[in-house]
Specification:
Low-confidence stretches: 196-250, 280-291
Mean pLDDT: 80
Distance between the termini: 21 Å
Number of strands: 17
Largest sheet: 8 strands, mixed
Helix content: 25-40%
Structural class: alpha/beta
């Protein structure tokens, strides 16, 4: 298997914006996380990063002109929106302004960043870790794509030969470049929405004097084209390709979308710098570990080596500072509190728990009150038979009553009917029943609900946390600020296990009665204090678990493939 990192590029309909996002280099990357992932692999793997100086003036003249034409056409589309803000258009315009300002005059490299592995499950985690370490998060995400090909796919052996010769191959490409719209001229591909009489016309032309400035380019000199000076931009008035005027004109035809294609394999030294750091051996890193250093592992690694610990009653929280797995039991501790500020790892941890819960309970049900409304959407798409989600406080009242009728009361009645005391004894009586999980994420939203709804949710919560152990009904209560307005002391005390990611020292004192969680470094995403029923505090490192993200990360490249059959 060969996996390759490319800048994320996409044609966004209906305007067909093409977005090769810049790498935002993370200068704090020390490669230790990537080395740690590689160290845990049982099979052979090569991580390859190859650069070649970019010297192709003929190709450069094409994409320089294409950038300028893209900006001009985006400006025209923007002028036609009648003051309505188009976020995608704004992002695209800003991006191409950066390209125009930096790429025209900067030193450029062609790059190849790839992993050669014996199997699919090894290549992706290494490259995924590299992306997360080498590139900073932006408002639009990492904007990298990992394309994987097996040896039976086109391009595999050409890419392998390029590695052998320390060269760069373009054999592994994004599939959408094969579509016909890549051959369209920019002026025809990106057009403003026609209104009124404009719907009857077919011609679209660029403005003679676009409203942007070419700060990084000399002015256009009449009569000089790219063959005489390839570094000069060209702005064309578009004419119909088959017209007599087009055939007689000495001006080249407008740039095509495909002229922008090289940008997804080019990078400036600043962009690529995040991928190059000194790797430290495992032995050295452990020997020199400081209080801010700790072992890490991905969910793929933990699942690969310790899946035998996961069952209907037990899940893996993460690894301790010695690298040993730390487990938790639904049977022993039925309810949990999870706390952490945004970005500390709380939502990722919930996904890790959900994955294990459904892996061990294939027909189990999970009910989620996700008041942020963004973290679990993929579950509904891929696991709709197991997961139900509400995203507003208004929906929550009906949701709570449904849980009470369909899950809680039904289970209590089964206990009475079979004259047993807990779910394990029900199973021994031959009843087909599995545990059920209710997750309340961003619980602060409850405090903004009406007094009546607050009381309903509060009363049900108290009922569930008091009786849920015996009937297999478990609650995970998540919050950033565990104040009495958000979670009552009775609910807080009933959550015998507390997983606390980075919070303020004040919040740490309220939950843990110490400041440990308030001292977790900001960069230690996924690190938490685990407090069990015995009152012991354990520092635990929860793993990163990838989730399917549109066309960027496919389901088959994540652990969720174990829960969803291949189509």
């Amino acid at each position: 298997m060969i996996g390759e990192i490319l800048k994320h590029e996409e044609f966004i309909p209906p305007q067909n914006y093409y977005l090769p996002h810049l790498f935002e280099a993370n200068q704090t990357n020390d490669m230790s996380a990537v080395c740690d992932v590689i160290h845990r692999l049982d099979s052979k793997l090569i991580l390859e990063i190859t650069l070649q100086t970019y010297e192709n003036p003929n190709q450069k003249s094409l994409w320089v002109n294409a950038i300028n034409q893209m900006l001009a056409q985006l400006e025209k589309v923007n002028a036609s929106t009648s003051g309505i803000k188009d976020n995608i258009l704004s992002v695209t315009s800003a991006l191409y302004q950066k390209y125009q300002q930096s790429y025209s005059n900067s030193d450029l490299f062609q790059y190849s960043i790839k992993a050669l592995a014996e199997n699919r499950a090894d290549a992706f985690p290494v490259l995924d870790a590299l992306i997360h370490e080498a590139i900073k998060e932006t408002p639009h995400g990492k904007r990298c794509r990992i394309i994987q090909v097996s040896k039976d796919k086109p391009g595999f052996y050409e890419s392998l030969e390029a590695t052998k010769n320390v060269n760069i191959s373009n054999a592994i490409e994004w599939e959408d470049w094969q579509k016909n719209n890549t051959q369209m001229s920019i002026v025809n591909a990106i057009q403003p929405e026609k209104k009124g009489l404009g719907k009857l016309g077919n011609s679209v032309s660029l403005p003679d004097k676009p409203s942007f400035n070419h700060h990084s380019q000399p002015p256009l000199i009449g009569g000089i084209n790219s063959e005489q000076n390839p570094n000069l931009p060209q702005l064309y008035n578009a004419v119909s390709d088959g017209s007599g005027l087009a055939k007689l004109s000495s001006t080249p035809s407008p740039s095509r979308m495909v002229d922008l294609k090289p940008l997804h394999r080019l990078a400036t030294p600043q962009e690529i710098s995040g991928f190059f750091r000194i790797g430290i051996s495992k032995e050295t890193s452990i020997a020199s570990m400081t209080e801010n250093s700790f072992p890490t592992a991905t969910a793929e690694e933990i699942f690969k080596h310790h899946r035998n610990l996961i069952n209907a009653d037990t899940y893996i929280v993460g690894i301790d500072d010695k690298g040993n797995p730390v487990t938790s039991s639904w049977a022993e501790i039925p309810h949990r509190l999870v706390a952490g500020v945004p970005g500390a790892g709380k939502s990722n941890f919930l996904n890790w728990v959900i994955f294990q819960f459904l892996y061990a309970n294939p027909t189990g049900k999970i009910y989620i009150a996700d008041f942020a409304g963004v973290d679990f959407n993929f579950l509904v798409k891929h696991l709709k038979d197991n997961v139900e989600i509400v995203t507003t406080i208004e929906e929550c009242q009906l949701f709570v009553e449904k849980l009470h009728t369909d899950e809680y009361q039904r289970r209590i009645e089964l206990l009475r009917q079979y004259e047993v005391q807990n779910i394990q004894q029900l199973k021994e009586q031959g009843v087909d029943i599995q545990r059920t999980l209710w997750i309340i994420d961003e619980a602060a939203a409850i405090a903004r609900a009406s007094d009546k709804l607050q009381r309903i949710i509060e009363n049900r919560l108290i009922q569930y946390v008091n009786q849920g152990r015996k009937c297999g009904f478990h609650v995970i209560f998540c919050t950033q600020r565990p104040t009495s307005a958000i979670v009552s002391s009775q609910v807080l005390e009933s959550c015998e296990e507390k997983t606390v990611f980075r919070v303020t020292e004040e919040a740490s004192g309220l939950i843990l009665e110490n400041s440990l969680a308030g001292k977790i470094p900001k960069q230690a995403r996924g690190r938490a204090v685990l407090k069990g029923s015995e009152g012991d505090n354990i520092l635990v490192n929860t793993p990163y678990i990838g989730i399917p993200v549109g066309k960027t990360v496919s389901l088959q490249d994540t652990l969720w493939r174990h829960l969803v059959p291949e189509p």
